[in-house]
Structures are given as structure tokens and as C-alpha cells.
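Feature request, filed as a ticket because there's no other form

It would be nice if the structure record came with a short human-readable summary line next to the C-alpha cells. Right now we just get the raw output. Example of a typical job, pasted below so the devs can see what we mean:
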Amino acid sequence: MIFTTKDYFIAVFYENKKIIGFISFMYDKKGLCLSEVQIKKEYQSANNNLKKMINVVLDNCNKEKSKNVYLTINPRNEKSKNALTHIGFYNAEGKNYKISYNDFEKRVTMNNVKY
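Raw output as currently delivered:
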């Protein structure tokens, strides 16, 4: 389920009617900004939930505004850095990570089938 305001979007993800996580995102002059990605601890490593959640965002984002996808990662959060660099984000500067939309879409599409 995606909730929206004029400039901000929140994709909420459920399993068995319970919230397991969300991704908030918006657009600015740089592209698609993943403002926050949260997944309950017990769902973080299960069933490719991060990729599935990101695919929902990709399926619902404005591709014209999304030449690049970027986010900020807390430098001390090694788990997030590892997960997001694994799917193709690279350190652009300091705590800022980015990837081109086309590369991002290719990396999170699993076996050429979107979830």
C-alpha cells in the first residue's frame, strides 16, 4: 500500500496483515531519493524482502524523474551499507550512496522476474 502527499510517498509492506516494513521516497533535482528504508529485524534477511520492497517502489515511481536513485546511510550501520552495496549502490560522497535508475532496476530484478 502506498500513501502519498504532493511530494512524498510511503510504501508500507505487510505480511499476514502485520506491517513488516516501509520505504519512504520522494523526487528532487537529483532523482529518486529513498528517504528511509525500514524492515523489522526478523524480516531483514528473509525471503529477499528488501528486493521485493524496492521492486514495489520501482513499479510505482515516476521513471522520468528517476535518472538516479540515491539515499544516505549512517556510516556506522554496516548491515545497511552491505545490503545496499550488494544491490548496486556505491558511495558517491561521504554517507551518500547512489546508482543509476537503469542499473538499479537491473540489479533488483531477480531472475528477470519482478516481485
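Something like this underneath would help us a lot:
The radius of gyration is 13 Å.
The helical segments are 49-60, 78-86, 101-108.
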